[in-house]
Specification:
The protein is mainly alpha-helical and 149 residues long. It has 2 domains: 65 residues, no CATH class; 62 residues. A two-stranded antiparallel ribbon has the order 1-2. The chain starts with a helix and ends with a helix.
Length: 149
Amino acid sequence: LVDDPKFFAMFGEPRNNTAFDKINGHYPASGRPVRQREAGIILKKYLSVDPTRLSRLVSLHFVSPDAAFSAKVANAWAENFIQTNLERKVQATSYGRNLLQGQLSEYKQRLDESQRQLVAYASAQQIINLPAQSGSGDGKSTSERSIVA
């Protein structure tokens, strides 16, 4: 809308403003910030958002001389709102995932350190680590059987 002369003509271009002086039928790039501010003022002035009671729904209304243009603006406003809302949710989810990944990494390091300390303690105390007992007792030497018993 910022670079569309039809948009500003529909609502009346501001007078005596070089940002709206057309060069070869187009607005100059140097006046874009001014036109952007003016377009925002127009959109805010002619757009209404009415919440629906007891729901999370709203009704958007944009009033202009062209009904098709009004529908296009209202739909674009709704689509942008939905897109922005989704992006915020993705950012929040991403933040949570990154936080949990950091915590998981920290806990893994702590577990690895605890396991190293356990092995060092077992070596220092000459603790024997025997394989788990099986019902058949196969594969165990006589000395292993006597220590387990």
